[in-house]
Automatic annotation (TrEMBL):
Gene3D superfamilies: HUPs, Riboflavin kinase-like. It comes from Algivirga pacifica. InterPro entries: FAD_synthase (IPR015864), Riboflavin_kinase (IPR023468), Riboflavin_kinase_bac (IPR002606), Riboflavin_kinase_bac/euk (IPR015865), Riboflavin_kinase_dom_sf (IPR023465), Rossmann-like_a/b/a_fold (IPR014729). Catalyzes the phosphorylation of riboflavin to FMN followed by the adenylation of FMN to FAD. One of its GO terms (molecular function) is kinase activity. Coiled coil: none annotated. Pfam families: FAD_syn, Flavokinase. Its EC number is 2.7.1.26, 2.7.7.2. Keywords: ATP-binding, FAD, Flavoprotein, FMN, Kinase, Multifunctional enzyme, Nucleotide-binding, Nucleotidyltransferase, Transferase. The keyword Kinase applies. This is Riboflavin biosynthesis protein.
Length: 311
């Protein structure tokens, strides 16, 4: 997959099948769109092109940080997921105040027609574009003959009678329901970060942990609690259990941390990059009467995690 950081970098191939959107999470619904454009491109001897935007439009359109969404994927994570889904070309357009003022007609002419020379455009059922989201599938369909390209809409994708969306996945993660989130994503939700130095209490009680500092503040961190996870470090994968929270048994609870106990692992990895994929929620974070109770519960958590990986 080739990645372009502006429309000017892109040199259009002879035929293109195009889609557009933020594609946060590259979830099941997004994957259906990617499958559709790949099939159409194969039938028509074309190459697939996606237009996406960075930063997320809401970061630019809303000054109030409370209105900024926590994202399922960083740009780097999204690029890797799109490549895994067989995309040929990814155009990452900078979303700024000036870009947000483009009318739907200006977007179509400058980006879709002049920039990409689109032959076919495939979009999701609720996709809008242009200033004030004035552009829609109906608008495109009505004017398609004059644009010189075909337009196709992907209907709402249903999974267990629930429309798959980035919003519903975020809600599941906020509730700690990583199994439901993973079902909608069709892969295990992940976080990436750097291993930082901690208070080393875990090592003293027989459960050494790696403290994870997530490198961006907009990444969605699931609900506080203990999780069964898959850990990747130095291109190797391990089982583990992870705690998100304030460690009320051993600290004053003023600082939130993300700590992972990696099974069958005993290496110094401070400063290393680490990835964690969530398998299942084990329990809510709780305050124990003493450290011995905590150790007993951690032993149960480890056994439950091992059983999950064996099932």
């Amino acid at each position: 997959m080739k990645v372009y950081r502006s429309i000017e970098e892109f040199i259009p191939p002879p035929k293109t099948v195009v889609t557009s959107g933020t594609f946060d999470g590259v979830h099941f619904g997004h994957q259906q769109i990617l499958k559709q454009i790949t099939t159409a491109a194969r039938e028509e001897g074309a190459e697939t092109v996606m237009i996406t935007y960075w930063p997320h439009p809401r970061f630019v359109l809303f000054d109030d940080p409370q209105k900024h969404p926590k994202l399922l994927t960083t740009l780097e994570e999204k690029i890797k997921l799109l490549e895994q889904n067989g995309l040929d070309h990814l155009i990452v357009l900078e979303f700024n105040k000036e870009f947000s003022k483009l009318t739907s007609m200006e977007f179509i002419q400058h980006i879709l027609i002049d920039g990409i020379q689109t032959n076919k455009l495939v979009i999701g059922y609720d996709h809008k574009f242009g200033r004030n989201q004035e552009g829609s599938f109906d608008y495109l369909k009505e004017h398609a003959p004059s644009f010189g390209f075909e337009v196709e809409e992907i209907p709402k994708q249903e999974l267990e009678e629930v429309a798959v969306s980035s919003t519903k996945i975020r809600e599941a993660l906020h509730q700690g329901d990583v199994k439901r989130a993973n079902k909608y994503l069709r892969y295990r939700y992940m976080i990436h970060g750097t291993v930082t130095d901690g208070n080393k209490l875990g090592r003293k009680i027989g459960f050494p942990t790696a403290n994870i500092k997530v490198d961006v503040d907009y990444k969605l961190i699931p609900k506080n609690g203990t999780y069964a996870v898959e850990v990747e470090i130095n291109q190797k994968r391990y089982m583990g259990m992870l705690n998100i929270g304030n460690k009320p048994t051993v600290t004053d609870g003023s600082q939130k941390t993300i700590e992972v106990n990696i099974f069958h692992f005993n290496e110094n990895i401070y400063g290393e990059e680490i990835s964690v994929r969530f398998v299942d929620f084990l329990r809510n974070e709780q305050k124990f009467s003493n450290v011995d109770e905590l150790i007993h519960q951690l032993s149960i958590d480890k056994q439950n995690t091992l059983q999950l990986f064996q099932s």
